[in-house]
Amino acid sequence: MNVSKEAMNEMGFDRHIAFNENILQIAFGTSETLLCFDTVQFEDYSKVVSDLFDPVAKAKRHQDEFPTDCKKAYEMGIRLVTGG
Predict the structure, then answer these.
(1) Which terminal residue of the chain has fewer beta carbons within 10 Å of its beta carbon, N or C?
(2) Cβ–Cβ < 8 Å for 42, 2
(3) How many CA atoms lie within 13 A of 21 on its CB side?
(4) pLDDT digits over 24-83, tens only?
């Protein structure tokens, strides 16, 4: 998701996500959502003209948070296939 957690909540995405989780729980009995914030949109920001993004901040956040997000996704995958 290419927004911060705060921006997501301000735009009301949190309510949509909660609604979708509830529908999935009704249909399948369980639901889990993994949210990743302020994600990288381009491999090389120097090749893109956009004033919306701070390439340095994006790179730092990606370096700091992406490994944790990947670990969370891996752990979620284990829970999904093992029922745990």
Answers:
(1) C
(2) no
(3) 11
(4) 999 998 889 999 999 998 888 889 888 888 888 888 999 999 999 999 999 999 998 988
Whole-number Å distance between alpha carbons of 25 and 65: 28
Contacts of 46 (CB under 8 A, 6+ apart): 55
What are the Cα distances from residue 11, in Å, to 5, 8, 14, 16, 54? Answer: 10, 5, 8, 10, 21
- Dig out the tokens for 24 from the structure: 């999935």
Pull the structure tokens for residue 4. Answer: 């911060």
Contacts of 2 (CB under 8 A, 6+ apart): 38, 39, 41
